């Protein structure tokens, strides 16, 4: 609507007595502003309109750029400079590109080519327009959750590798033996469970082979907090930082069986972990290596060197001692053990305690009523792995306390209550933790009470019905 000389052609409504006056111009903050006064008649009234150009363009979106009717050129130029100052202070994506310095803005790719709603953004930067900001946040959240590992993809990968999937019922129980995969923490990791026969403390079923397969493919594999499932992280992930899974089985040592005086389950686990890479030491025969023993509820890994268990003085033997302890610590952490504390002589670690019960104890009254004796039995264990609780007085009283005995009649000490006694007895036989205790006597009494209450309600209902019928 304008020629190359800058002569302005106004819309048809203003094509009356148009007089093009010489153009003026100036530079302002890197922008070229030009203007020209035009006399025209609008709606029967003669008026002066100032047209202007920014960056050499006299039009915007196909229409001439003009000021308000009878607005002076000085006023128009002042308004343009004010708009330029405003966009320099705060970027506005809906402002015309000519108001910005040449080469500093570009069309937003999201709206480029659209008939409506096009806007601009700074060159090489994210678009600050509100809708674009919202979409960028959504994409960032989706990207942070996108790990490249999902329950469905990992399940399909294992099925193709020949591992059998378990068929699950609607309540999550399994119809068939096999594995199942569940996503955790927005699919930042997945958990693999085994449905089938389980042994406390042992990774069940095909999970060891599944772990080895996934590690060969580059996935991060850790043993779950319950000890009976695997937690899988994406390739390249550092995981939880508490140690990658290794082929160590808590009870793999030649068919271990619970017995009186057995080492605690966590001590046996740590011993199996350390035995994979290092030699067990002995002060008696002078073998250098490691020893493990209980340290409260932790397990101490002690260095044995030259029949001594204390750190040597400075020198070569001291360097060998420190290097060995450092290797013990690194191996323990890689194997999933948690560091409790360390010093110059040993490191103390703890084993992940499963969140699900690993041992079921049953406590029930035995003998005549006045004996105040209770029998403790462990599910799946023979009579030789059992015990009893006996009140120390012939009658119940606030001052009475209970002694714990094992199956051989050996007194194990005084206990606070029944549950404490069951836990102490489980440790005595080396059974895995945690222990859940069932009280069938209490359950029978509760059920008998419920049955009596139901019988009373039933009798009252029948009496009411017979009375109503009369």
Structure, briefly:
The chain is α+β, with helices and mostly antiparallel strands and 470 residues long. The protein has helices at 73-89, 130-145, 151-160, 207-216, 265-275, 316-334, 418-429, 440-469, and strands spanning 19-20, 24-28, 31-42, 45-54, 59-60, 63-64, 105-107, 120-122, 178-184, 189-195, 220-223, 230-233, 289-295, 298-304, 338-342, 346-350, 359-366, 373-378, 386-391, 402-406, 411-415, 435-438.
What does this structure look like?
By secondary structure, the chain is α+β, with helices and mostly antiparallel strands. The chain folds into 5 domains: 12-90, no CATH class; 151-233, no CATH class; 265-350; 359-438, no CATH class; 443-470. It is built from 8 helices and 22 strands. The strands form 6 sheets. The protein has a 6-stranded mixed β-sheet with strand order 21-20-19-18-17-22, covered by helices on one side. β15 (338-342) and β16 (346-350) form a beta hairpin.
